[in-house]
Amino acid sequence: MIDKISLIAVYPEIILLVMACVILLFDLSVKSRTRTATFVLSMLTLAVVAAIQANYALSGQTIYAFGNMVVSDVMGNWLKCFATLSVMVSLVYGRHYAAERDMLRGGEIFSLSLFSLMGMFVMISGNNLLVLYMGVELLTLSSYALVALRRDYILSVEAAMKYFVLGALASGFLLYGMSMLYGATGTLNIQEALAAIQSGQLKHQVLVFGLVFIVAGLAFKLGVVPFHMWIPDVYQGAPTAITLMIGGAPKLAAFAVMIRILVEGLMPLSADWQQMLMLLAIGSLAIGNLAAIAQTNLKRMLAYSTISHMGFVLIGMMSGAVSGQPEATANAYGSAMFYVISYVLTTLVSFGIILLLSRDGFESEEISDFAGLNQRSPLYAAIMAVCLFSLAGIPPMIGFYAKLAVLQALVASGGTLQIVLAVFAVMMSLIGAFYYLRVVKVMYFDVPSSTSGPITSPFEVRAMLSVNGALLLVLGIVPGGLMALCANAVMQMLAT
Q: In angstroms, what CA-CA distances link 243 with 44, 91, 246?
């Protein structure tokens, strides 16, 4: 029998699941080309879910439910709240783009987006290896369908096939690593696995063998080197509205899974997984930034940019367990959480502008398509410039403070190797600044193309983009509130 506390812990998930099914059925009666009624119902659902998650997070409670298989804590609730808001913004930006490309013949984009968000919720709240895996599969299966939603576009179908094949391989890695961990500890519960490892009676070699496969599976979900090759192809091939959907909120869920497994479950093996994360971070920073320089397609450039940014997230993750001081540990993981949130916020702006400039029969995804944007619309050029400056880590944008926080945590963790890695990360960021500033140069100094059409967009898209772009600047100038929120959430997570 399910107790009341367990139901309270998963109220948002229940609402989301029920409404996803209701929206799927309700859409059968909707005839509008832009699916306005379905869109409004989806927005209301997401707004209610986000409000409940924020309320849960502000309450500061930690609830273990369903036999400790699910945990509702401050960190998880904030991540779920931000993921919900990210999906809301993605649907606002992408609805008219999808309608123009005949992707709204049914309301699948809305229901699949809600189901993918449900998968993220399960990933973020999972306190059991199988629950985490179920969340991963629900997210990825929904994502495969979303990428292939534009059935008459060969690049989308090809991207979906690549994503499916490589995703299945990564899921196999993750599941095999979990099975090795289960075989070694005799439990699927993360806390019980931690206790078994801390007892010192288990074979270290078996644990590390399973750890390698788990880290490989997680590395694929984050899209870091050498598990990164799906990122450029899927980002470029998927419809831009779907690229935004899979490039934003899922990063929050992947970060949460890393925290749940590596920090909450495998902290005694930190000396092993820190070395793995260091190698992954170095490769991601180098290949991501160097490969992005050669790209002429903006979506593909942003894909390689994603790889380099995930390298910074890994730096924050590997900085937490070196010093052994609780405050420094919370600061390091809080910095990584801050970085992921700031990256998602910036990604929403960058792909939002690409969606805005696209029109029926024209994909505005080449860098040359942004030529003379300042002459066509100074507002949108300024918003895109703020976004690119943030990605490059130029003050006073939020991206600068995110990079600074992660590098401070790395240097504070002590050791010559950490300082060398910090210097390397700064050098790679300087290289990365080149390809971001190149786009700014094209927007402000190049002549608009003769094929450039008028920029038209609905009011809600213009308003959302303006607020979204302003947040990049405001949170960069006064980042203390969001940083304190992240550090406090991680601190409470570690305390429980």
A: 23, 12, 5
- With respect to residue 473, please indicate whether it lies within any of the assigned structural domains: yes
Cα-based distances in Å from 317 to 197, 225, 490 = 20, 16, 12
The angle at the Cα of 433, spanning 373 to 313, to the nearest 5 degrees, equals 115
CA neighbours closer than 13 Å in the CB half-sphere of residue 302: 32
Q: How many angstroms separate the CA atoms of 407 and 424, rounded?
A: 11
pLDDT < 50: residue spans in the chain: none
Q: Has residue 245 been placed in a domain? A: no
Tokens 């899209």 identify what position? 223
Chain center to CA of 306: 10
Q: Tens digit of pLDDT for each residue in 389-430?
A: 999 989 889 999 999 999 998 888 777 888 899 999 999 999
Sign for the CA dihedral angle at 304, 309, 312, 317 comes to negative
| Alpha carbon distance 77, 57 (integer Å) | 5
Residue pair 53/464 in contact (Cβ under 8 Å)? The answer is no
pLDDT value, residue 321? 66
372 in a structural domain: yes
Structure tokens at 478: 């006064």
- The answer to whether residue 66 is domain-embedded is no
Q: Looking at residue 199, what is its pLDDT?
A: 82
Enclosing domain of residue 305: 269-496
pLDDT of residue 304: 93
- Residue 30 is inside which H or E element, if any? none
* DSSP-derived 3-state class of residue 65: strand
- In whole angstroms, what is the distance from residue 316 CA to residue 267 CA? 15
Confidence (pLDDT) at 6: 75
Q: Residue 485 CA to chain centroid, in angstroms?
A: 18
CA atoms within a 13 Å half-sphere pointing along the CA-CB vector of 385: 16
CA dist 144 and 163 (Å) reads 7
pTM over 0.85: yes
Beta-carbon-side half-sphere exposure of residue 355 (alpha carbons within 13 Å): 33
Direct distance between the N- and C-terminal alpha carbons of the chain, in angstroms, rounded to an integer: 26
What is the DSSP code string of 109-152?
HHHHHHHHHHHHHHHHHB-BHHHHHHHHHHHHHHHHHHHT-STT
Please count the structural domains in the chain.
Answer: 1
pLDDT value at position 286?
93
Contact 319, 418 (CB under 8 A): yes
List the structure tokens of 35: 């699916």
